[in-house]
TrEMBL record:
This is ABC transporter ATP-binding protein. PROSITE patterns: ABC_TRANSPORTER_1, ABC_TRANSPORTER_2. Transmembrane segments: none annotated. SUPFAM superfamilies: P-loop containing nucleoside triphosphate hydrolases (SSF52540). It comes from Nocardioides aestuarii. InterPro entries: AAA+_ATPase, ABC_transp_ATP-bind, ABC_transporter-like_ATP-bd, ABC_transporter-like_CS, Oligopep_ABC_C, P-loop_NTPase. One of its GO terms (molecular function) is ATP binding.
Length: 339
């Protein structure tokens, strides 16, 4: 596939609460993913990263904005979504819950082929058995035939996660969406699964979207990072640039507790992500912003803007490092003028 694999522009997703209020799970989000690229969506629980991933897969229809797969907008008809499912596959974070305990490994991997009517051959023209065996081998489960008749409870956590990945690979997708792919695994197994995802990217040219709360994981696997807060991307760019020189106070706080960043003083954010039915005015992060709380924003003359002036939606610029922060913008402008 040439050009961009997946693009979201100004995506807004809303849910009605029982009280009749409208919660904006996504409040304008732009992201872009190229073929063979690994993009990490990072943020706390409630930041909107999983909703964005579901929206990119067509599982949620945006109230505004557009999602494009390749050069076409998503088709939300039954036929259109069925076609999309063959090209975009999701790997869930809980393999024990995602695998049917009554299905053998073979049936779990073959399920997608059967749903899409590919029992007589996959997109490469192989038989079902050949496709299942090849998918298990690609996921690092060899010899595959030894696992065909085993059940999920007979496997280790790492093996179950590999079976989920094999089920996705059987469909020969263009994009793999991994939602917290190693959060339920032991530390000794996490590196193996991350290495597998990178290997699949290299060998098959897959685009990979990783949803995670762990910036350390993103640092190890992603080409680009998009940091989300309260339904918006607040900072994004090449991983090395974003994580070696974070500009947004929220990114700085997330990064400060990553073990690999010993040079940073840990920042403990106060409170929790606000209710999406009551998004704060101005910068949506300002009620929890350390730079506002310690007087840094006031000293720079942007405290009033932080509290009262809304920031625009960040563009999905795959080549640049962009940030939605009054203080970071001011510092950046000062650096440019001095140079």
């Amino acid at each position: 596939m040439s050009g961009e694999l997946l693009t979201a522009t100004g995506v807004r997703v809303e849910f009605a609460t029982r009280g009749g209020q409208v919660a904006r799970a996504l409040d304008g989000a732009d992201v872009q993913l190229s073929p063979g690229e690994v993009l990490a969506l990072v943020g706390e629980s409630g930041s909107g990263k999983t909703t964005l991933a579901r929206t990119l897969m067509g599982l949620e229809k945006p109230a505004a904005g557009e999602v494009r797969f390749g050069d076409r907008p998503l088709d939300y008809s039954v036929k259109g979504l069925r076609h999309l499912r063959r090209r975009v596959q999701m790997v869930l974070q809980d393999p024990a819950g995602a695998l049917n305990p009554r299905h053998t490994v073979y049936d779990s991997v073959a399920e997608g082929l059967r749903i899409h009517g590919l029992v007589d051959g996959d997109p490469q023209g192989r038989s079902e058995t050949e496709t299942v065996a090849a998918a298990l081998s690609s996921a690092g489960l060899r010899p595959p035939e030894a696992l065909f008749l085993r059940y999920p409870h007979e496997l280790s956590g790492g093996q179950r996660q590999r079976v989920l990945i094999a089920g996705a690979l059987a469909m020969a997708p263009d994009l793999l969406v991994a939602d917290e792919p190693v959060s339920s695994l032991d530390a000794s197994i996490r590196g193996e699964i991350l290495a597998l995802l990178l290997k699949l990217r290299e060998e098959l040219g897959l685009g990979v979207l990783v949803v995670t709360h762990d910036l350390g994981l993103a640092w190890n696997i992603a080409d680009r990072v998009a940091v989300m807060y309260l339904g918006r991307v607040v900072e994004q760019g090449p991983t090395e640039e974003v994580l070696s020189d974070p500009q947004h106070p929220y990114t700085q706080a997330l990064l400060s507790v990553v073990p690999e960043t010993e040079r940073m003083e840990p920042v403990v954010l106060k409170g929790e992500i606000p209710d999406p039915t009551r998004i704060p005015g101005g910068c949506r992060f300002h009620p929890r912003c350390p730079a506002l709380a310690d007087g840094t924003a006031a000293a720079a003359g942007v405290a009033d803007a932080c509290r009262g002036t809304a920031l625009p939606v960040l563009p999905a610029d795959p080549a640049g490092h962009v940030v939605a922060c009054h203080l970071a913008t001011l510092v950046g402008q000062a650096g440019e003028s001095s140079s």
